[in-house]
Specification:
This protein is of the alpha/beta class. The protein folds into 2 domains: 3-122, Rossmann fold (3-Layer(aba) Sandwich), CATH 3.40.50; 132-227, Arc Repressor Mutant, subunit A (Orthogonal Bundle). Helix content is 41%, strand content 21%. It contains 8 helices and 12 strands. It has helices at residues 11-23, 34-43, 60-70, 84-93, 105-122, 158-168, 177-184, 194-207, and strands at 3-7, 27-31, 48-51, 75-79, 97-100, 132-135, 138-141, 146-149, 152-154, 175-176, 217-220, 224-227. A 5-stranded parallel sheet has the order 2-1-3-4-5, with helices on both faces. It has a 4-stranded antiparallel sheet with strand order 6-7-8-9, covered by helices on one side. A 3-stranded antiparallel sheet has the order 10-12-11. A hairpin with a 2-residue loop joins strand 8 and strand 9. Helix 1 (11-23) crosses helix 5 (105-122) and helix 2 (34-43) runs parallel beside helix 3 (60-70). The relative contact order is 0.10.
Length: 231
């Protein structure tokens, strides 16, 4: 049974989402602030976290930072903060998805299932293809979902892994934003490319010597992105 953490200071929201999630046979743990959420994470193996931003004691942004220091679980932000800058900040800190309140519980359910499905694909499985994709000094080990820069392993999220698998697995091929979003996020693309832009930016910070002048992750203006071999 998958375990889901919901961190939100509104009791009604936790109770409503718990009702829907338990019907789908998920085990739900509720927390009303960031510190309580961290205690729950320490106590047991949580599979995914749904986090509000505006919480007492420790807000959602601080909580995401703490989660990313130790855990690779998917994180969905569910917040009334609806500005583009709020969404970008959440994604930059390590969230995998961002839902604006008020939202339909069925939409939240769909996002949870999508994240868990991607996480399952991300997890190591020795029976899967054990190919190592090499581009320049970068090596993507698909058996354990690890990216190496030289001999140094680099920590990445499940979404970042999926992005690298798509782009590194098809070097020099240009992918449109629509193709990237629908392949990595497995959802229809409606023209909002902020999510892709933020994740590309985070990957550049991790794999490029100079993220402002990328050698690997190239932007093809007006089209999308491609992964280039280092010259």
């Amino acid at each position: 049974m998958k375990k889901i953490l919901i961190a939100d200071d509104e009791q009604e929201i936790i109770e409503l989402m718990t009702l829907y999630l338990e019907r789908e046979n998920y085990e739900v743990f509720g927390a009303y602030d960031g510190f309580s959420a961290l205690d729950i994470l320490k106590e047991g193996a949580i599979d995914i976290a749904i986090i509000d931003i505006m919480m007492p004691n420790m807000d959602g942004y601080q909580l995401i930072k703490k989660i990313r220091e130790k855990y690779k679980i998917p994180v969905i932000v569910m917040s009334a903060k609806s500005e583009i800058s709020d969404k970008i900040l959440g994604l930059e800190l390590g969230a995998d998805d961002y839902i604006t309140k008020p939202c339909d519980p069925l939409e939240v359910m769909a996002r949870v299932k999508a994240q868990l499905r991607r996480c399952s694909e991300f997890n190591c499985n020795e029976e899967k293809d054990t190919e190592t994709i090499v581009v320049g000094e970068l090596k993507l080990d698909t058996s354990c979902c690890v990216i190496y820069k030289g001999d140094k392993p680099i920590s990445i999220t499940s979404t970042e892994y999926k992005l690298l698998l798509l782009l590194m697995g098809n070097p020099k091929k240009v992918f449109t934003k629509k193709q990237i979003f629908e392949s990595v996020w497995n959802e229809p693309f409606y023209g909002d490319d902020n999510t892709i832009m933020v994740h590309i930016s985070k990957l550049r910070d991790k794999i490029e010597e100079d993220s402002k002048n990328p050698v690997y992750l190239k932007t093809i203006r007006g089209l999308g992105y491609k992964f280039e071999s280092k010259k």
